[in-house]
């Protein structure tokens, strides 16, 4: 199981980005979380099979229908947490 941390910049808050991210992750069988950050970015951690992680990375670069993604940074992380689902964090 691999885990990826991502930070998404652009017009990604207030445009259903977190909910769309959750739905995409669930469709890909990924677990983890997504949350808005005070600086206007969105942060997410997702884990699962490598091929589905790559699909999620590609999706994040495009974003939800009403978002405008300017930049995404990815980092593979060592995380001993086994997430049971994919959640929107407050």
Walk me through the structure:
- The protein has 90 residues and is α+β, with helices and mostly antiparallel strands.
- The protein has a single domain (2-88), classed as 2-Layer Sandwich (Alpha-Beta Plaits).
- The chain is built from 2 helices and 5 strands, in the order βαββαββ.
- The chain has helices spanning 17-27, 50-62, and strands at 2-11, 31-36, 42-48, 68-77, 86-88.
- It has a 5-stranded mixed beta sheet, covered by helices on one side.
- The chain is globular, with a radius of gyration of 12 Å.
- The termini are far apart.
- The model has no long low-confidence stretch (mean pLDDT 97).
Ordered list of secondary-structure elements with their pairings:
Blueprint: E1 2-11, H1 17-27, E2 31-36, E3 42-48, H2 50-62, E4 68-77, E5 86-88
Parallel strand pairs: 2-5
Antiparallel strand pairs: 1-3, 1-4, 2-3
């Amino acid at each position: 199981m691999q885990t990826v941390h991502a930070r998404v910049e652009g017009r990604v808050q207030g445009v259903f980005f977190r909910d769309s991210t959750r739905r995409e992750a669930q469709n890909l069988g990924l677990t983890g979380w997504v949350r808005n950050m005070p600086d206007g970015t969105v942060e997410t951690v997702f884990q699962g099979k490598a091929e589905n992680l790559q699909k999620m990375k590609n999706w994040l670069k495009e974003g939800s229908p009403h978002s405008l993604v300017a930049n995404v940074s990815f980092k593979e992380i060592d995380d001993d947490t086994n997430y049971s689902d994919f959640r929107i964090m407050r």
